[in-house]
Design goal:
about 10% strand, single chain, elongated, 4 strands, Alpha-Beta Plaits, alpha+beta
Length: about 290
């Protein structure tokens, strides 16, 4: 019986992910293109090191003269192989598209400064504008349910094997890359790179609908059992059930509460809509979660 339920739940998740796939893919491509524009307009000319594989490419270009797009592609392919070995086929498949398309767009837009003719020599303004643009593009990519590969894979590996959050893993991987740039570009460049990273983080979080790592859903639905089973079996998150009474009609009802990572926001929201289109739910940010499994 459990095997049948798990198979049904897996099919339901796949069904949700396939919905609006074209729209999500277009949003992903636009996001990647915006990131590539920001990278070639503001990052490369000013030798900013925004962490990630893009930051490594800036350093290797300075030291060895390698093309940024080629370095990003080579590292991404290597990390995909590592991901397949350590994280498995399913998690790796989510990173393949971004790992291959992103370096292609970096190459495509490498002369964008010539096309646009924008003066990006003012370091502070370039850092702010570049961070805003980069963060907006990254937010679109994440909201569409994709990544650009690179150190996102490293972060997942660190999170799995060192038992730390993705946020902590990002701090370690990106922090080491940014700090290493001191040797090549000096302290001044590092300070602007840190500001660049902060702006990216802030804007991308806003685009993805929130500034926290987790969301709390409060759900009122006539299909309580179906929604509860979906959260427990398909998404693998806990549910708390409250008894409640409507303030207007004074009718008794129940409220389902669940806390889940922001990355699962879309899956739960769409799942509720598919199960009960008349369901009422409230979504809020949460900043710290303790206890539970």
């Amino acid at each position: 019986m459990n095997v049948v339920l798990n198979a049904q739940n897996s099919q339901f998740i796949d069904y949700i992910k396939k919905q609006a796939l074209v729209k999500r893919f277009i949003e992903f491509l636009i996001g990647c293109f915006i990131i590539a524009m920001s990278y070639n307009l503001f990052v490369v000319p000013n030798k900013l090191v925004p962490g990630g594989v893009g930051g490594i490419a800036v350093i290797t270009n300075k030291v060895f003269g390698f093309e940024n797009a080629v370095v990003i592609l080579c590292i991404n392919i290597f990390l995909l192989a590592i991901s397949f070995l350590l994280l498995g086929k399913k998690k790796t498949s989510a990173s393949i598209l971004g790992s291959l398309i992103f370096p292609f767009l970096i190459k495509l837009t490498e002369n964008i400064n010539v096309w646009i003719g924008m003066d990006t020599s003012h370091l502070l303004m370039s850092t702010i504008l570049g961070g805003l643009l980069y963060g907006f593009g990254a937010g679109l990519v994440f909201r569409a349910g994709f990544t650009t590969g690179g150190t996102d894979i490293v972060n997942q590996i660190l999170s799995k094997y060192l038992k730390q959050s993705l946020g902590s893993s990002m701090l370690v991987s990106d922090g080491l890359i940014v700090l290493s740039s001191v040797y090549f570009f000096g302290l001044n460049s590092v300070m602007y790179s840190v500001l660049f990273l902060y702006i990216i983080s802030m804007i991308s979080d806003r685009v993805v609908l929130g500034i926290s790592d987790s969301k709390v859903f409060f759900i009122v639905t006539e299909k309580e059992n179906e929604v509860r089973e979906y959260i427990l079996k398909s998404l693998g998150h806990g549910v708390t059930i409250f008894n409640a009474k409507g303030g207007y009609k004074k009718e008794n009802s129940t409220v389902l509460m669940t806390v889940l990572p922001t990355k699962d926001y879309y899956l739960l929201k769409e799942g509720i809509r598919r199960i009960d289109s008349d369901a009422f739910y409230i979504i809020t940010d949460t900043y710290e979660v303790f206890g539970g499994e």
